[in-house]
Amino acid sequence: MRQLLFLILLFVPFKVQAVDYIMIGRGGASCGQFNQDIRESKQWEYIYYSWAEGYMSAINARNEERFGKSINLSPTSFEGPEQLKFLKTYCNFNPDKSFLFGVMTLFEAIGKE
Questions:
Q1: Closest by alpha carbon to 60, among 104, 19, 16, 26?
Q2: What is the pLDDT of residue 28?
């Protein structure tokens, strides 16, 4: 009986659905998850902020390559600690939004410096 079941399963076509991820890492988390994680451990701040730095660096490098335009990602008036504070504030006011949107908003704010 097991052999018959095995043969049936072997020849019955299955549709395997691939999952496309538009991002990987902590950027896919909600701001609510970010808020919860950073309350649990300060280490999470570094993990999320490192993801944000990498994301903004990649966008900046792409913009330089494609459009010949980039921004200073660490202006003296808006360095790392202030950027992290910006993300915390954004996520406190927008717990249902993606952390990614906070990073995109931060990137725009840095560009105005």
A1: 104
A2: 84
